[in-house]
Amino acid sequence: xxxxxVDGVKKRFRSDMSLAKREVLHGVSLHAREGEVLGFLGPNxxxxxxxxxxxxxxxxxxxGRVTIFDHPVGDARGMARVGYLPxxxxxxxxxxLDEFLAFCGAxxxxxxxxxxxxxxxxxxxxDLTAHRGKRLKAFSKxxxxxxxxxxxxxxxxDLLILDEPFSGLDPVGRKMVRDVLVDLKRRxxxxxxxxxxxxDMEALCDRICIIRExxxxxxxxxxxxxxLGEGKVExxxxxxxxxxxxxxxxxxxxxxxxxxxAFLVVRERRFVRRVIEHLYAEGAEILEVVGERSSLEExxxxxxxxxxxxxxxxxxxxxxxxxGF
Length: 325
Description:
Layout lengths: L1 E13 L6 E13 L3 E5 L6 H8 L7 E6 L2 E2 L3 H4 L2 E4 L11 H11 L7 H11 L15 H13 L5 E5 L7 H16 L3 E5 L3 H7 L2 E6 L2 E7 H6 L1 E10 L13 E7 L2 E6 L5 H10 L3 E9 L2 H9 L21
Parallel strand pairs: 3-8, 3-9, 6-7, 7-8
Antiparallel strand pairs: 1-2, 1-4, 4-5, 9-10, 11-13, 11-14, 12-13
Helix pairs in contact: 4-5
């Protein structure tokens, strides 16, 4: 089942003082299956946030079709099952965290008798229990990001759409968000998220879609990525402890340690994801994954650097412009 399906979406915007329109999405198509984590990757200005806004019905596509749980975009039956965290969420600064979540719960039609338990649970999940009574204007950027994640999962959605969920988080906050996403995936939720942090994508995603200049240039499964190239792979982990090797000894050919960093040589590329997931679960931070195989970073750089990048098509623009006032 395709929980999310985007088919041939195009979008044009006017820019500056001109009535001419520039197309920013050129027939974007992608899909997310039930229980899948789909990563959305692209350089700044590639169209990631615009695509997400079209999916959510915040802006209207010029052509193409979006369905969520087989319902057209904007249909309340589909949207009720969606949780959303924008790239730059807005919070009412005078509200406490509890008041903010109570407001969000009411908007999401969470049962009033169930709401206090839900709030307590999500606040604990994002490690903000000690700050429930604090006004949001006193929160740091990382705390606000976690508050935003709390509201996104408050009504227990089946599809989570996250725009840069790791933005503003320190390593502890990043691990917390990763753990939340891993748990949601384990519970069968579908997650669609954009991020610039490639190691997190490699650890979390089942598939990656790369967008460049408003066009999807590559969709690839992480297992397929691991099969590209041959040879051993070195994983660099920070926050290493000797006991972390337990459970992955058979996959690791050798290791060397430098302070809190460890460099693990994985025997075969097919074992890399298991090693990374294990290290994340043990609290380590993955700094680098290199070797004789294509990494996600290499694939990304190759795809966005290909010749034939789309240029603005003057023939498709309206030619009316403001000539004066």
